[in-house]
Write a structure and sequence with these properties.
Blueprint lengths: L5 E8 L7 E5 L8 H10 L1 E9 L3 H17 L9 H8 L3 E2 L8
Antiparallel strand pairs: 1-2, 1-3, 3-4
């Protein structure tokens, strides 16, 4: 898959007082907000990152939003979802990123 046929995303948790979960789709950032949004994600704790196929991005976004809603609905101190569960739920949408090797 060509690099321009996939979108990099990251699910992260804020490190400040709020500790809310968010997602960022890096290639969709508007120019005026790009640095601010990337800085927010970089300051947070990465929960999961990967690439989704552009042709399935809309459905992937919906599933990612469900995951984030579930995480944000949990008790703040216990909010967590195993990486394997996230991968299972996103499996229909994920593609290998640049430099990744298939298992």
């Amino acid at each position: 898959m060509a690099a321009d046929e996939k979108t990099m995303f990251e699910i992260y948790r804020e490190s400040d007082y709020n500790r809310a979960f968010h997602c960022i789709f890096y290639t969709e950032l508007e120019e005026h907000a790009r640095e601010k949004e990337i800085a927010r994600a970089a300051a947070g704790e990465t929960v999961y990152s990967g690439f989704v196929a552009d042709e399935r991005k809309h459905a992937a976004r919906e599933e990612i939003e469900r995951i984030i809603d579930e995480l944000n609905a949990m008790d703040e101190d216990e909010a967590n979802m195993p990486r394997a569960e996230i991968e299972r739920r996103l499996a229909p949408y994920l593609v290998l990123g640049p430099g990744a090797l298939a298992h």
